[in-house]
Amino acid sequence: MVTRVIGAADPRYAAVGAASTAPGSVARDWDEWDLDGPTHGDARPGLLTDAAERQYVANLENRISAPLDLSALRAAGRAGRAVARALLPRDRYAVRLGQLMAGLLLYGVSEALMLAPAVGVDPWDVFHTGLARITGIPVGTVLIIVGVFVLLLWIPLRQRPGLGTLANIVIIGVVVDVILGNVPVPHGLALRWGIFAAGVLLNAIATGLYIGAGLGAGPRDGLTTGFAARGHSIRIVRTTVELSVLAAGWLLGGNVGLGTVVYAVAIGPLVHVTIPWFGRSQDTPTARACEPQARPSGA
Q1: Which residues of 58-90 are buried (b: 16+ CB within 10 A; e: fewer)?
Q2: Rounded Cα gap, residues 11 and 234, in angstroms
Q3: What distance, in Å, lies between the first and last C-alpha atoms of the chain?
Q4: DSSP codes of every residue in 92-152
Q5: CA gyration radius for the chain?
Q6: How many CB atoms are closer than 10 A to CB 93?
């Protein structure tokens, strides 16, 4: 609160003269006191009286104490929270988002570990490596491009992507390109198979993390569940899709080998453990629905 002393005790009155000793008769020039006084239109009065000064101080205090207009900021905050609620389910979504990001990052690392030894990869990655061979595009970038095209197939199937679906397309491919572009190719059969086995195990853990988060399946998994939702057997649909991309990848010169068989045999039992494990920690409907399938489809 600003307080002005108006009266004869104010030392400023001494400079005005004897006529200013009484508070009721004080008259001072605006420029002398350097105050922005009340105005009438564009005109400023030449003299400041006590009454005008009191009115000026009151107006100034009102402007200082008036609350800021935060309505626009509050509206933006409400809009941001609405978007977050639309993209992320309400139950523990911060924890689930962290689990999703960790799962996708580890999935990209596991893909790189399985691709680097060149002993064979899963059916979708056979297709990806075949496209990379004939186009010269890095395999991680091929993962992103194929993911986008597969996502377009969701439209006629009326599948709805989640935040995890969109993050899946970008993060895994970027991580694969970064690792394969900076890590030397392993040599020696034992080392190559050791790296591949670590990749398969890490792939199962990463699958459990990102699917267990319940924020949306990968584009390839969603394609399978989309067909299954139209009344087809999920086993038949998955087998048909994976055999199709495996055959196409083999014709394109993709990385088919013993590792392809090892992955096909090992990944089912592994994710049968990891998906319920990480899914129960979040107890999400998506995670519970994935338990009977318990097998990823190339993210």
Answers
A1: eeeeeeeeeeeeeeeeeeeeeeeeeeeeeebbe
A2: 93
A3: 64
A4: THHHHHHHHHHHHHHHHHHHHHHHTT-S---HHHHHHHHHHHHH---HHHHHHHHHHHHHH
A5: 35
A6: 20
Global pTM exceeds 0.70 = no
Q: Which residues pair with 29 in a beta bridge?
A: 47
Q: What is Dmax (Cα atoms) for the chain?
A: 109
CA dihedral 212, 218, 221, 225 (to 10 degrees): 80
Give the separation between CA 100 and CA 274, rounded to whole angstroms: 14
How many C-beta atoms lie closer than 10 Å to residue 40's C-beta?
A: 7
3-state helix, strand, coil in the chain (%, to 5): 70, 5, 30
pLDDT digits over 177-222, tens only? 999 999 888 889 999 999 999 999 999 999 889 888 888 888 988 8
Counting every residue, how long is the chain?
299
Q: Which two tokens stand for residue 48?
A: 């400041």
Collect all residues with Cβ–Cβ distance below 8 Å to 186 and sequence separation of at least 6: 116, 117, 192, 195
What digits encode the pLDDT tens for the residues 80-135?
Answer: 767 766 665 555 778 888 899 999 999 999 999 999 999 999 999 999 999 999 99
Which 3-state string (H, E, C) describes 267-280? HHHHHHHHHHHHHH
